[in-house]
Design a protein that fits this description.
heterotrimer; A mainly alpha (118); B mainly alpha (301); C mainly alpha (1043); B: 301 residues; mainly alpha; 69% helix; globular; C: 1043 residues; elongated
Chain lengths: 118, 301, 1043
């Protein structure tokens, strides 16, 4: 199970990066990066997963005393939450940039923005 | 050796002898050269006539201070060279002021007159003077080189820079002369000798035909007289150095007279039978022939 | 002491609260932002001070009240506090620099700036991996926001490219973090230590983590995105981006790699060096100032990354070295970016506008010197320690690459500085205003303060605490005064210093000191001619003299090297003052730095890392295997300074184009520093052989070749000062030959040249300079016949050339006499030939000098010229008097030196009795020579006067040639190509072999730069691909090495 999730995560990352590198359209690049981000998140969760354990919520079902044996590691999950939030922020910023770029030149083709070089 | 006042009259006497010898000998050589060319040539006393005439000239001009001083430098150079070198080995009085410096002094003092002369000629503003100086200096850079190497070779050979000691080392027989103990150095030095005696094929500096008499072009009257005086003594002074370094020196005035004459005749003879080199040709000549001999000389001592 | 976590809290809190306030009151908001940044800076500075003085201990801050790894912890030790100060102060100044944009865009932009500063500070403090990620992402977002502050619309594209790469970095980082966590079970950086990194999964995790952080450092070639930001962003922000973000990212790499173990260090070294060298090469072809600074930034970050890679061998010095380099880079780069906001044009030449404000030039010079690592700035001390440690650890290739990179970097930085000083300044090219100037000067002050601090390091020789250096600095402050007052003070300072130290020196050092210090004062007399304030002259000159003074005082390797660099820098600024000297000053500083690096390496080899190492300790290595290499390196450095053939091409231009009073300083005095170094070296190391070749013989050959070719080249010059410059090469060749003879008389000969060359070369340069002041030309064929108009100048040239050519009776003859005695028992025969050849060639150029200027025909435009200014003549007449006195009484200077050299070689070949000198081979009686010559001269002169006292002065054209009377001086003055016959015969020696060689080297490097920069296509996707390919390539290479 964990292996499948891990593999899926990496496939998503690679697919996302491939998309970001091959699509000239800025919006498509942003979407591709979102896919890659999702892949990263899946990898994060998959690494933290331990088979046969329950969610790290301490309630009646999981007494505090047995928590260490019964729950999976909560840290990766916390990380994923944070990463999702940050990813959202970055995506939003990229979209804002896309808007500015489009307004600047009426184009969303990244190869049109190469006046800075050498 | 230290200074005593009596040395001054002694030195003046030496100078007087050399001057007269020089005046006569150069005239004789000129006459010989003329005869070779099928001309009658000058009388042997011609130099005296020229000297007196030039001293007596009444109209004289000057182009400036250096122009005025040029002949003074020139003649000082010639006289000084004689005074810094002992003339007769073993003589109690013909040692001049050799105590002031050794061989190195003589070698470098040669340039004193040349430099002053060139400066004086330069101020005349005559382009021929400048051209003559340019040619002369260019040529001398290479022509003097074999001499410098030869001198170094024999200084190492005799382990001294003192001219007197070098002459002393050659005493006691013909085969003690440097000519036989170190022939390579002598051959090298003779390249320089022929190259700097202002005779064909190395006389383009004066070039009597194209640039009338080169550096001294503008000189006349007493200026020229001083230069003529120098022209009489300077070659002798040089010959004395060569004689002392390579040909056993002279122990008497007679020996001096013969050796100086014979040495002087070498460039004269070469001169009358050779056409003139251009400057770059003579530089190449010394580079090709003089330098290798000089190098061999310093490598083999 | 308030908790450092407040830095984060204040930053974040103010950023949020700005959003709550009225957006209209822009000035109030901006005031609040500034206050917040100010308070953050104050806290950081307070901690730095407390930690540095020991008043506080390293602070460990546990958030959430739980010990790590269960909660994030922050740490503030001395390095962290120093970096925090740097970051917050840069933030504060950057806010001021960007004030217009921040006020225009209002509170949002200010909040983003605060967040950026806060996040960068957090990056420095945090010890938690994931927290690291959060801060990095915050920085990315804030950066992308602040890029938009720029008016340049290209910045939008740049910002997007940046975000694309940030995405890739964050992917790498997150995957790296989670696998590291998986392997170690902790997110705390300090726990990485205890976990085994041996197995493959963990090392891959570590690799991803590190490489993500490294890409954040913009390594070559995965850095196109960063360069675009540097080019287009607001310079105030670029400063922050380079100084604060860059430094923090470096610190993070260090933080992570420290526990990860030393096997990761070669990776950092490799990437860092590649980045440093390649970025600098590419920067050579840059014409845009900000992009150039960008390349320089990524290069510097690469350098420091490489230094982090050396942390295993740096030991205790690690913080000192890395810190020195980081701070130098940050301060200088930030300062330059801020300055660029004042310069209106974007081309490098546009910086010429700085000239309108002298303090700006000082600022520029300070920053350039800091970047290149010149004294007295921290980078200099750091570079020294780094070199010592690297050589001690056997990492010579690393050091070589670093020095190569620095050399290339100095090439474009000094070229740029040259543009600023020399190029045409555009009208109104500088938008200077009090705030931006204030920012710049605060940065300059910071740089100098850091220089002092670094000099004050443990067991360190503090350059800025020495009297000569302080004097030089004081002259910066005296700049507003009139030049004549400053000149008087300068002369007094030099003489005062000499009076203070002269008593302690051995005779040899004393001769050098006399030439360098009071000798300098004599030349300075000529500077009384200059009117006005003469900005820049005195600080440069006094820096050079300070270097010389310290050189003579130096007792350790470091002191010597520091003095050497100060001298080089001062003389560079002096040379650059000449009207046409821009390219020549550049080649001067490059050759000098190259030479200095050779010296640095040589010293490092010799010391084996022991600091401080006394110069006298050099003899301890004389028997070691590495001694010949030390010899080669040191000699190469010193020969660069004496301009030995092959390393000489900087000299003719530098000496010829310098100002009238500078030429004698750099020629007559400065060249002697190289000889001084050679003496010191040979005294300690003695003869050395490399592969069976006696190195002193090699030196003798180099000396002979220089003596000969220098003279030949001098003959062919039309420019009087170039002629003198080539003559210096020749003269130094003689001196080098003398030193290399390694016998008593050889050394005495060299000492004689030290004195003589100073006197006659200074005199000739001054005379020619005086003529130049009147005729406004240095081309000799345009002059002629000046003897009657400038008689004093003529006399000094006359005396000078007689002395120089060695004709008796002047002092040059003494040199020749000692020379002949010296070679009598030398085994070297072949190089002698060259020396013999050089002698008469000297006549050629000297005669040409005097003839074509003073003799021959006077030109029409010169008929009303006056003699050179009197203050230029005064030192010349002093020199004339000295030359004549020295000719008659050489013993006054030489006898003691002779005795001293005798104590070194244990022999005494010269016997001094009375006024005469006797050697084993010959004798020399200077008084008698002078007396005879004077007597004969006077006698002959008297005869001539008796006969020709009534000679009539005639007019100029009273000559006849070719049956015509000339009317024009131009057609009659024989001057151009004066030695045409000599050129026909020996002209082949003029072939510019050496110049073509160095031209080929620089052309090749420039070509590589031009080729490489095409790599930066400008396409964001390409850049992203670069990053990925870079990561893959590094992985393949590194994992091959580690696993």
């Amino acid at each position: 199970m964990a292996q499948i999730a891990l593999a899926t995560g990496f496939v998503l990352i690679l697919a996302g990066i491939y998309g970001a590198l091959t699509n000239r359209d800025i919006l498509r690049m942003i979407v591709a990066f979102t896919i890659a981000d999702t892949g990263v998140n899946v990898v994060l969760v998959a690494v933290g997963f331990l088979p046969g354990r329950t969610a790290p919520i301490l309630d009646a079902a999981v007494p505090v005393a047995q928590a260490a044996e019964r729950i999976i590691d909560p840290v990766p999950q916390a990380l994923v939450l944070t990463a999702i939030v940050i990813g959202l922020g970055i995506t939003a910023l990229m979209l804002a940039y896309a808007y500015r770029l489009f307004r600047l030149r009426g184009s969303l083709d990244i190869s049109n923005f190469t006046e800075l070089k050498w | 050796m230290t200074f005593e006042w009596i040395q001054i009259p002694y030195a003046l006497l030496t100078l007087f002898i050399i001057l007269n010898y020089g005046l006569l000998m150069t005239a004789v050589v000129r006459k010989l050269a003329a005869r070779v060319g099928g001309r009658p040539g000058i009388p042997v006393y011609q130099n005296y006539i020229d000297l007196v005439k030039n001293f007596a000239l009444r109209s004289k001009i000057s182009h400036g201070v250096m122009y005025y001083l040029g002949p003074v430098f020139r003649l000082t150079g010639g006289i000084g060279l004689i005074l810094f070198v002992p003339t007769i080995y073993g003589s109690s009085w013909a040692q001049n002021f050799a105590f002031a410096g050794d061989l190195v002094l003589a070698l470098y003092f040669v340039f004193f007159g040349t430099l002053g002369m060139a400066l004086g000629a330069g101020e005349s503003g005559h382009p021929h003077s400048a051209i003559g100086v340019s040619r002369g200096l260019s040529q001398v850079t290479m022509a003097e080189l074999p001499l410098a190497l030869a001198v170094y070779a024999i200084a190492v050979q005799y382990q001294t820079l003192s001219i007197t000691e070098i002459v002393a080392a050659q005493q006691g027989g013909l085969f003690n002369w440097t000519l036989f103990t170190n022939p390579l150095a002598v051959v090298a030095a003779m390249f320089a000798f022929v190259g700097t005696m202002m005779r064909s094929p190395f006389d383009v500096v004066l070039a009597p035909q194209e640039i009338p008499i080169g550096p001294p072009t503008e000189y006349h009257s007493a200026y020229l007289a001083l230069m003529q005086t120098n022209r009489a003594i300077f070659p002798i002074a040089k010959t004395i150095i060569y004689m002392n370094l390579f040909f056993g020196g002279a122990t008497s005035w007679a020996e001096f007279a013969i050796k100086a004459f014979l040495l002087y005749m070498i460039p004269a003879v070469i001169g009358v039978v050779h056409p003139r080199f251009r400057v770059e040709q003579s530089i190449r000549f010394f580079l090709k022939w003089g330098l290798p001999v000089g190098v061999l000389a310093i490598l083999t001592v | 002491m308030v908790s450092p976590v407040l830095i984060l809290a204040i930053g974040l809190g103010t950023a949020f609260s700005l959003g709550l306030m009225k957006p209209a009151r822009t000035r109030v908001l901006f005031g609040i932002t500034l206050t917040a940044l100010g308070v953050m800076s104050a806290i950081a500075l307070g901690w730095t001070l407390a930690l540095a003085t020991g008043a506080a201990q390293t602070a460990e801050i546990h958030t959430a009240g739980v010990a790590p790894p269960f909660a994030i912890n922050l740490r503030v030790g001395l390095p962290e506090a120093a970096l925090l100060s740097l970051i917050t102060l840069t933030g504060l100044l950057a806010a001021l620099s960007m004030r217009a944009a921040l006020l225009r865009l209002g509170r949002g932009s200010q909040a983003v700036l605060l967040v950026l500063v806060m996040a960068v500070s957090g990056l420095v403090m945090t010890r938690d991996l994931f927290n690291l990620f959060v801060f990095i992402e915050l920085i990315a977002i804030a950066t992308a926001g602040l890029v938009l502050l720029s008016q340049d619309e290209r910045a939008i594209g740049a910002g997007f490219k940046y975000l694309v790469v940030s995405q890739i970095i964050s992917i790498l980082l997150l995957v790296g973090i989670i696998f590291t966590y998986h392997a170690t079970g902790s997110l705390n950086i300090d726990d990485i230590t205890v976990a085994p990194v041996a197995f493959r999964g963990a090392s891959l995790a570590m690799f991803l983590l590190l490489i993500a952080l490294i890409v954040e450092l913009k390594p070559f070639p995965a850095n196109g995105w960063a360069l675009d930001i540097y080019t287009s962003a607001h310079p105030g922000f670029s400063a922050l981006f380079s100084a604060a973000t860059g430094s923090a990212a470096l610190f993070v790499v260090d933080k992570v790699v420290a526990p990860a173990g030393t096997e990761w260090l070669p990776l950092l070294t490799g990437i860092g060096l590649l980045s440093f060298v390649a970025s600098n090469i590419v920067a050579l072809r840059q014409e845009n100032d900000r992009r150039l600074l960008g390349y320089s930034s990524v290069g510097q970050l690469g350098l420091i990354l490489a230094v982090i890679g050396q942390r295993d061998v740096l030991g205790d010095a690690y913080l000192y070295v890395a810190g020195g380099l980081i701070l130098s880079h940050a301060v200088a780069k930030a300062g330059l970016f801020w300055m660029s906001s004042m310069v209106r044009g974007r081309k490098l030449e546009d910086w010429a506008a700085l000239r309108t404000r002298a303090p700006m030039v000082l600022a520029f010079a300070t920053f350039v010197a800091m970047l290149v690592g010149l004294p007295p700035f921290p980078g200099f001390y750091a570079k020294w320690d780094l070199a010592q440690a690297l050589v001690a650890a056997g990492r010579l290739p690393v050091l070589t690459l670093i020095l190569l990179g620095v050399l290339i970097e100095s090439a474009y930085l000094f070229r740029w500085f040259g543009y600023a000083i020399k190029r045409e300044a555009a009208e109104n090219g500088l938008a200077s205003n009090p705030v931006d100037c204030g920012i710049t000067f605060a940065t300059v002050a910071g740089g100098w303060a850091l220089g002092y601090l670094w000099g004050n390091g443990p067991e360190q020789f503090n350059l800025l605490a020495t009297l000569p250096a302080i004097t030089a600095v004081v002259f910066i402050l005296l700049e507003p005064l009139d030049a004549r007052i400053k000149n008087g003070l300068a002369i007094a300072a030099l003489l005062g210093w000499f009076a203070m130290v002269a008593g302690d020196y051995d005779p040899m050092r004393l001769i050098f000191a006399a030439v360098m210090i009071p000798g300098g004062a004599v030349i300075l007399l000529a500077s009384f001619t200059e009117k006005g304030r003469r900005l820049g002259f005195y600080p440069s000159a006094m820096a050079m003299y300070a270097g010389l003074a310290l050189l003579l005082e130096a007792t350790t390797f470091f002191e010597f090297f520091a003095a050497w660099e100060v001298m080089t820098l001062g003389s560079y600024f002096l040379i650059l003052r000449g009207r046409m000297s821009e390219p020549h000053a550049l080649s001067y500083i490059l050759f000098s730095l190259g030479g200095a690096f050779a010296i640095l390496t040589g010293f490092a080899l010799a010391s084996g890392g022991v600091q401080p190492h006394p110069i006298d300790g050099l003899q301890d290595v004389a028997a070691a295997d590495l001694a010949p290499w030390v010899f080669v390196l040191l000699a190469a450095g010193f020969l660069t300074k004496t301009a030995a053939m092959g390393l000489h091409i900087w000299l003719p231009g530098a000496h010829a184009e310098a100002e009238t009073d500078v030429s004698p300083m750099v020629s007559g005095i400065l060249l002697k520093a190289g000889l001084f170094g050679l003496f010191l070296m040979l005294m300690q190391l003695g003869r050395q052989s490399l592969y069976g070749v006696d190195l002193t013989v090699v030196l003798a050959y180099i000396g002979a070749i220089s003596a000969f070719l220098g003279a030949v080249l001098a003959v062919f010059q039309e420019d009087a000062k170039r002629l003198l410059a080539y003559s210096s090469i020749s003269q130094m060749g003689y001196a080098l030959f003398g030193v290399a003879l390694m016998n008593h008389l050889g050394w005495l000969l060299a000492m004689m040249f030290v004195i003589n060359h100073y006197v006659y070369k200074s005199m000739l340069f001054l005379a020619v300079g005086g003529v130049y002041k009147r005729t406004h030309t240095k081309l000799m064929y345009q002059m002629g016949g000046l003897i009657t108009l400038m008689p004093f100048s003529f006399v000094s040239v006359l005396v000078g050339i007689i002395a120089m050519s060695g004709v008796p009776p002047l002092s040059g003859f003494g040199g020749r006499w000692i020379f002949y005695n010296a070679i009598m028992d030398a085994d070297l025969r072949l190089p002698l030939i060259l020396i013999f050849m050089a002698g008469p060639v000297g006549f050629l150029y000297l005669f040409r000098l005097i003839h074509t200027i003073f003799l021959g025909q006077l030109k029409d435009p010169h008929r009303k010229l006056k003699e050179a200014p009197v203050w230029i003549l005064v030192p010349q007449m002093i020199f004339v008097a000295f030359l004549i006195a020295f000719a008659v009484l050489p013993g006054m200077a030489l006898q003691k030196v002779d005795g001293y050299i005798g104590s070194i070689f244990g022999d005494q070949p010269l016997v001094w009795h009375g006024r005469a000198i006797t050697s084993e081979f010959g004798y020399w009686n200077p008084v008698a020579i002078m007396a005879v010559i004077v007597m004969v001269f006077v006698a002959v002169f008297a005869i001539l006067i008796a006969k020709n006292h009534d000679a009539q002065m005639v007019k100029q054209f009273n000559i006849v040639f070719s049956a015509e009377r000339p009317y024009r001086p131009e057609t009659t003055h024989f001057a151009w190509n004066f030695f045409a016959p000599y050129r026909k015969a020996m002209g082949f020696l003029e072939t510019p072999v050496v110049t073509s060689f160095w031209g080929g080297v620089t052309g090749g490097i420039n070509g590589a730069g031009e080729f490489t920069r095409r790599f930066y296509s400008g396409n964001g996707q390409t850049y992203a691909a670069h990053v990925l390919l870079f990561v893959v390539a590094v992985y393949l290479i590194a994992m091959g090495g580690i696993a």
